[in-house]
Amino acid sequence: MVKQEMQREQTASMEDYLEAIANLGKGGKVVRVKQISEMLGVTMPSVTSALKKLSEQGLVEHERYGHIRLTPKGDEVARDVIYRHDALTRFFAQALGINRETAEEDACKIEHVISPLSMERLAKFVEFLGACPLGRTNFPSRYEYYLEHGELPQDCSKRSVKKRK
Q1: Can you give the pLDDT at residue 137?
Q2: Which pLDDT band holds residue 6 (cuts at 50, 70, 90)?
Q3: Among 27, 80, 141, 148, which residue has the fewest nearby CB atoms (within 10 Å)?
Q4: What is the count of structural domains for the chain?
Q5: At residue 58, does pLDDT exceed 90?
Q6: Are the beta carbons of 47 and 17 closer than 8 angstroms?
């Protein structure tokens, strides 16, 4: 579930940097300015400037010409952005039948502007869809039950619902 009380303090661009650092650093890999530059399609000086701002906000640790790491606070923000991105991508691909590439592009744009309430409902819908496909009977009433009670109806598969870490 999306944390509704989490206030977004970063711009879309800053969230993209945090998301890129988190994705590049998966598995404890070292992250460098050049990698971020290539991933986001921006110049290395732009990355350095953004890292300075993120460092001032306590979201990254970065020494000049050194490795880049997310702080615990930066990791929390990055995980939230990734969660929004993944939920939106799944919604577009699974619920709307949009091809994966377009779903990814749209998710990247929308993840920064969607309200916490809309994001929470969309994420719940995607989770629900995984457990209770649209083709089954009584879909609207079962989905309403899920929203009201926060748990799946007994006739839905619990194995399909992914919890946010």
Answers
A1: 65
A2: very low
A3: 27
A4: 2
A5: yes
A6: yes
DSSP codes joined into one string, 8-23: --S-HHHHHHHHHHHH
Q: Residue 61, SS3?
A: strand
Beta bridge partners of 62: 68
CA distance 64 to 66: 5
What are the CA-CA distances from residue 124 to residues 23, 93, 141 (Å)?
24, 15, 15
Confidence of residue 134 (pLDDT cuts 50, 70, 90): low
pTM to 2 decimal places: 0.74
50 domain residue, yes or no: yes
Look up residue 30 and give its two tokens: 């070292």
Per the structure, the complete domain to which residue 53 belongs is given by 12-76
